[in-house]
Amino acid sequence: MAKVTVRYWAAAKAAAGTAEERYDAATLAEALDAVRERHPGELTRVLLRCSFLIDGDPVGTRGHETVRLAEGGTVEVLPPFAGG
């Protein structure tokens, strides 16, 4: 298990009620399961529309269970943004 920081942006930040939190997770899927457990409701719905960066790299279409997290790493939760 890695200790990672999950950072929320825009609608995800509003739904979580915080800008960032720490989690213990080995994969992105585990981290997102922990987020959903801590924040049932609106954030769970927002996550369905989000893209993710792991230590600055886009996850893209990779399965979340295949995306390994490094100790001290960062997961950026990016909802769709309006405008340019």
Automatic annotation (TrEMBL):
Organism name: Streptomyces flavalbus
Organism superkingdom: Bacteria
Database matches in SUPFAM superfamilies: MoaD/ThiS (SSF54285)
UniProt cross-references to InterPro entries, sorted A to Z: Beta-grasp_dom_sf, Mopterin_synth/thiamin_S_b, ThiS/MoaD-like
Gene3D superfamilies membership: 3.10.20.30
Signal peptide: none
Name of the protein described by the UniProt record: MoaD/ThiS family protein
Classification via CDD domains: Ubl_MoaD_like
Lineage: Bacteria, Bacillati, Actinomycetota, Actinomycetes, Kitasatosporales
